[in-house]
Amino acid sequence: MNYQELSKEVSYALRHAPSEYGLSLDENGWVDVQELLKALKENNKGASIELNDLISMIEASDKKRHEIVGDKIRALYGHTIPSPIKKEIGEPPEYLYHGTARRFVESIKEKGLLSQERQHVHLSVDEDTAYEVGKRRDEKPVILKIKAKLAFMNGVSFFKGNDKVWLSNSINSEYIEFH
């Protein structure tokens, strides 16, 4: 089984288009595992995907996009669905990082970091991860250093996505160091 392809499909179903799969996420983004398996089978015209495949997919991923707890599964971050997914506020580390295309820097200086089409701004715990994320849109991305702890102390909400990703609704430019 190609776990990377399965991860992409599960991400699409849980982050972007649950209604296309006949799924209804609860307010925290959870859906019953058996409902997801049934939807994946119907979408793949009979492909046999089992719970163990989902578990192996999650274990094989270095990005930790999904989690299973009990009989429920959810995507941890990256949602574009219109209904907001509730997240628990957490205290971030002193600094977080965001990799972005050079063409967006002036707009970020003016408006700060905005979630755009996603529900949250995605921030990385280290510069290397931010660089890899930024390379998706620019071969020489700019790495922004976010004064996360200061922003948090001043009322900006942060949410832990996973061990490498933190989320926020937006980050004002006063908390961003441009290099």
Automatic annotation (TrEMBL):
GO terms for molecular function: NAD+ poly-ADP-ribosyltransferase activity; tRNA 2'-phosphotransferase activity. Gene3D superfamilies: 3.20.170.30, RNA 2'-phosphotransferase, Tpt1/KptA family, N-terminal domain. Keywords: NAD, Transferase. It holds the Pfam family PTS_2-RNA. InterPro entries: Ptrans_KptA/Tpt1 (IPR002745), RNA_2'-PTrans_C (IPR042081), RNA_2'-PTrans_KptA (IPR022928), RNA_2'-PTrans_N (IPR042080). Signal peptide: none annotated. Its EC number is 2.7.1.-. HAMAP family: KptA. Removes the 2'-phosphate from RNA via an intermediate in which the phosphate is ADP-ribosylated by NAD followed by a presumed transesterification to release the RNA and generate ADP-ribose 1''-2''-cyclic phosphate (APPR>P). May function as an ADP-ribosylase. PANTHER family: PUTATIVE PHOSPHOTRANSFERASE (PTHR12684), TRNA 2'-PHOSPHOTRANSFERASE 1 (PTHR12684:SF2). This is Probable RNA 2'-phosphotransferase. It comes from Metasolibacillus meyeri.
